Amino acid sequence: MKPSDLHQVFESLPGNFAVLAAEPGFPVVAMSRELRNFSADPDNALGRPLFELFPEAPDAPGSEATLRAAFERVIRERAPHRHEQRYDVFDPVSGAFREIYWTATNTPILDEAGEVQYILHQSEDAATERRHGSMAILDAMTEGVFTLDRQWRFSYVNPEAHRILRQEPGTLIGAVIWERFPGSDESEFGEHYRRTMAERVTSQFTAFYPGLEGWYEVTSYPAPEGISVYFRDVTARELAQHDRERMALESAQQRRLYETALNNTPDFVYIFGTDHRAIYANEALLKVWGVEDVRGKTWMDLGYEQWHADMHDRELAQVIETRAPIRGEIPFTGTNGRRVYDYIFAPVLDADGEVVAVAGTTRDVTARQAAEQIIREHAERLADADRAKDEFLATLSHELRNPLAPLKNGVEILRRTTDGNSIHAEIHSMMERQVDHLVRLVDDLMEVSRITRGKISLQLQPADLGAIVSNALDAARPVLEAGRHALHVDQPEAPVHLLADPVRLTQILANLLNNAAKYSPPGSDIRLAVRKRDDALTVSVSDTGMGMEPAEIPHLFEMFTRGDRVRTSHQGGLGIGLALSRRLAMLHGGSLDAHSEGPGRGSTFTLELPGPFVDPTERTPTAIPDELRLSLRVLVADDNRDAGSSLADALQLFGAQVHVVDDGADALEQFESLAPDVAILDIGMPRVTGYDVAQALRGRDVRVPLIALTGWGQASDRDRAIAAGFDHHLVKPVAIPALVRLLASLERGGQPVDA
């Protein structure tokens, strides 16, 4: 191999390597960069005699001769040779030689004739080599260890030292301790380290370093290169010691504080030992027990009756055994008479978790119990009043619906049997509007009852806003036409579909339109506007009517409150519609608010509804044409003859064969002979109720569809009807078209939908 090739190989080798020609002067053939950096001329090393590059130090005579003799021995014996010697190296920074002891290994490289052609020279700092054996021991130590050279640089740091000092492994080597740990040079650490370095003596100390917020127990030893430091983190020990000292200093004061607090509380505080004898009682309890000292006393010694003492002894034993608190309430007669006390026994545990005592607190709850009893009685009266109110509303609704049913049936008959151009048609329309108004009032009463009890729920589905607006306009049209109001509707051209309860949204908008019509003078402009945003929908109803004071607005949405404008407008109503509408809006996740510039300046009610907007769901039209004909045999049972006969007359207009009875017993007796296709039964009939009829028919295995038509319209009434055997539950007064659609679906054998 050519010398240039050898040099290229050795140039980047880690460590101190050189290839020397086996000839006088031992010229350099190749040399590692690391070794060249020790030489007198690193940039011009190749081909030069070794000892020109590494001259002998004046303070170490014979160094060159020793190394030269080692080379000659290798040439002579043609065998490797290893030895240790001092050979100082010139330091260009300081301008002086640096004392170093080397371990040198020289290996012969033979030519083809077997003669030594080159010498492979390898050297290593002997101090470094000697440290290798001890490093493994130091690395495994559970104490932190590091060494500092005379320039205060870290030359060795074991893993535990890195951990304690919170440094990444390997990041401290070569760093100056005073720079890496600021402030340590002016602390106890700097004082002791300098003493060890200068005086070459061992120093032991414990000090706090603010930079790491820790206490450290340290021993520093003199070392050949500087100092060695052994240390450990004793922060937990020091803090514990400081805590003990602090607690010892504070214990007397704390005892006085605790005793003052315990003696000035109206509660009774006491401690019993595991032998069930008293250890401590505060002054309040001492007065009740009538003693000056309780130490060593049992429950019986303190004046308790036998049963009472036995009970507390059992409780103390349970707390000691289970290590869990126990609570109770007991009457006790003491120096202040007979009182009721609430008490807690809790275990006192030592450091090992063993129960060493039982602490107790007792509170006089006599007055509290009396107050709680008053509250309970008041709550029961309120609950009774609430139940009575619900029962009254349900009964009132039932009693109102019964007379409304024949009226609504009669109006339907008149409408279908009167010429639309007749002079009576307008009267019939007026009657229909007023009956519908009464029906809405009854429905509102029941809505109030359901909402206040949280019983109302939404039937969410993809809903067409255009259809909802149209239905609301239809519902409010009689009031709008009666007031000769001009209605303006502004809504998006594109259909808007959202997830909502279409019936409830129709109810909200109809209420707002009715409200605008009622509180606007005849011939006013009323505007309904729909605005769709990306994530919300706004529907506003504005009028040019009487307006209101801003302070009046919050009260509009209170139940049974209609505001000051009612007294000036002379409008009727129960004050339910707006309150009900706002609650329905909130159930949809939206809001309903009002705005007015003042009296005489109109009002705007704004309904905000959140998205999401959905794709419409295809639905089959449910409208039934007026010319629909029924061919069913229908049995109607109702003790209200007007309601029964008017319903029969209305159904007969559609072709149904109707037989009416006014008693449940007659319905059962004539059922088989009449063989009806459908039975429509009132619930509240005398003697035999509609429930009795349904249960009896189902008991006979009769499968004829049964429809409950009743003034009882609560959810519980519907559930009870279905449980009795009814297939459908309708509330009086029923809309005749809706009932006809139901009967038509039953006749066709399809899936009926309740009205």
TrEMBL record:
The modification 4-aspartylphosphate is found at D682. It holds the Pfam family Response_reg. InterPro entries: CheY-like_superfamily, HATPase_C_sf, HATPase_dom, His_kinase_dom, HisK_dim/P_dom, HisK_dim/P_sf, PAS, PAS-assoc_C. Transmembrane segments: none annotated. Residues 395-613 form the Histidine kinase domain. Residues 137-200 form the PAS domain. It comes from the Bacteria. Residues 633-747 form the Response regulatory domain. It catalyses: ATP + protein L-histidine = ADP + protein N-phospho-L-histidine. Residues 326-377 form the PAC domain. Signal peptide: none annotated. Its EC number is 2.7.13.3. It is an enzyme of class 2 (transferase). Keywords: Phosphoprotein. The keyword Phosphoprotein applies. This is histidine kinase. It comes from Novilysobacter selenitireducens.
